[in-house]
Structures are given as structure tokens and as C-alpha cells.
Amino acid sequence: MVRRSKGPKTRARKKLRQRPSVRPTITKFLQEFSLGQSVALEPEPSSHKGMPFHKFKGSIGKVVAKRGRAYVVEIRIGNSIKQVISRPEHLKVI
Predict the structure, then answer these.
(1) How far is CA 74 from CA 19, 20, 28, 62, in A?
(2) What is the pLDDT of residues 14-34, one digit of tens each?
(3) Closest Cα partner for 68 from 83, 93, 85?
(4) What is the separation of C-alpha 42 from the centre of its chain, rounded to a whole number of angstroms?
(5) Any domain includes 13
(6) Which of 5, 28, 45, 61 is the most exposed, fewest CB within 10 Å of its CB?
(7) Phi, psi at residue 75, to the nearest 5°?
(8) CATH of the domain at 52
(9) What's the whole-model pTM score?
């Protein structure tokens, strides 16, 4: 038997699907966010670097810090607060 893969994108085929006609513009990769700004996590399937884990898709949080090209976003899930590091192409302003 073959051992089952347990990588970061397992069971995410439908979540990370994108039509070929819909490609992001360059401005999506260059957008800037200020600290304290509300953002939604929407992974961009064509860019793999800095993509948040697929269970956080659609989550809303606040930008806490900037780390290189990426941003640290705090998300509240139940009673716990999670910090997700994500690049700007995977974030959307609310």
C-alpha cells in the first residue's frame, strides 16, 4: 500500500480552484496595508508563497505587523486568537 500524503494542501482541491480566465493583476501583489486594518483571508491559488493554510479561508482579522513582504494577521477562532503570516495577494480589504 502507498502511504497517504499529509501535506499542507491535502483535501483542498475545490477550495483552491480558480478559473483560467480569472488571473490576478499585478496591483494585487503590490497592495499595502496599514496596522490595525481589517482584512479577509482569501488565498490566491496561482501564488503559492505566503499562502495561509486553507482552513483560514474567509476568515476576518486585523493586521498586527509587517514581516518582510508578508503581514501578520490576528484571527479570532472561538476563544483563541491565532496569528497567520500571509503575503498581500492572499489578503482582501474589508
Answers:
(1) 30, 31, 21, 5
(2) 988 888 888 889 999 999 999
(3) 85
(4) 5
(5) no
(6) 5
(7) -125, 140
(8) 2.30.30.70
(9) 0.88
